[in-house]
Design brief:
Blueprint: E1 3-4, H1 5-12, H2 16-24, E2 32-33, E3 39-41, H3 43-57, H4 62-70, H5 76-109, H6 116-143, H7 145-156, H8 160-182, H9 190-204, H10 212-224, H11 226-232, H12 239-250
Helix pairs in contact: 3-4, 5-6, 5-11, 6-7, 8-9, 9-12, 10-11, 10-12
Length: 252
């Protein structure tokens, strides 16, 4: 099916002015331009506009969106899976916050005391449930029930300080990964070693014995399981592979 610029604007909710700007910068070209000067868009352009809007909803800049979509290796299905992972994570985060706020409201209404540990309890329980649903089967198959149960118990037993540090490290790992991939830095560089060390510290916060083999095994899941890959590649594709290669090289 073919749409005029006004029809596509009505269909997508994107203004005609924006569509003309996308055309000017080469982000979304019409399939054809009639002699009258009217722009027309086909099914391929509709799909591309949908991809653009998904990336924009995630806060990705237009320049980066164009680079992603014009890359010959761009895989639309993989990109959609990454978008879904981001949205599901955001949904889980909001559910955690909602539950925490509800519990806090109940305490306030009843004039009950709520310790610092209780304030974070719902968040920690949600993390355990989410990871069990998404990765529990594979983790138990590879590492055994006792190790997975111990890891989950360690998360639930984290102190407020440990929990906050754990989340801070998680964000810092993602930040450094994305920066390294965007800059084209090698995972075998000192940057790769620094990220590997951050990841080791992140894994070790919840306790349990650390071995390079266990570290490498966990990192391998990031490229072998599409859900892990989608999580790390949700904003910048290539982060999962960078982390895996860095850990395989530096975790010795």
């Amino acid at each position: 099916m073919e749409y005029s610029i006004h029809e596509l604007s009505h269909l997508s909710g994107v203004t005609t002015r924006t569509l003309r700007w996308y055309d000017k910068i080469g982000l979304l070209k019409p399939s054809r331009v009639a002699e009258s000067g009217y722009r027309y868009y086909g099914s391929a352009e509709v799909d591309r506009l949908q991809d653009i809007l998904y990336y924009r909803a995630l806060g990705v800049e237009l320049v980066r969106i164009k680079a992603y979509l014009d890359d010959p290796s761009f895989n639309r299905l993989a990109a959609l899976q990454s978008h879904l992972a981001v949205l599901e994570e955001e949904q889980a985060r909001l559910e955690q916050l909602i539950e925490s706020v509800r519990k806090t409201i109940r305490c306030e209404e009843r004039k009950e005391y709520m310790s610092d540990e209780q304030k974070f309890e719902a968040l920690k329980q949600q993390i355990v449930r989410q990871h069990e649903e998404l990765y529990g089967r594979e983790a138990r198959k590879q590492y055994g029930d006792s190790m997975v149960d111990a890891a989950q118990q360690a998360v639930q037993c984290m102190t407020t300080e440990q929990y906050q540090k754990w989340k801070e490290l998680e964000k810092e790992i993602r930040r450094q990964l994305e920066a390294a991939v965007q800059a084209g830095i090698s995972p075998y560089s000192e940057t790769g070693r620094a990220i590997t060390d951050l990841h080791r510290r992140w894994l070790s916060i919840t306790g349990g014995s650390y071995t390079p083999e266990k570290h490498q095994g966990i990192a391998a899941l990031y490229v072998n399981d599409p859900r892990f890959t989608a999580y790390y590649d949700r904003t910048v594709p290539g982060c999962a592979r960078f982390l895996w290669e860095a850990v395989m090289y530096w975790a010795k």
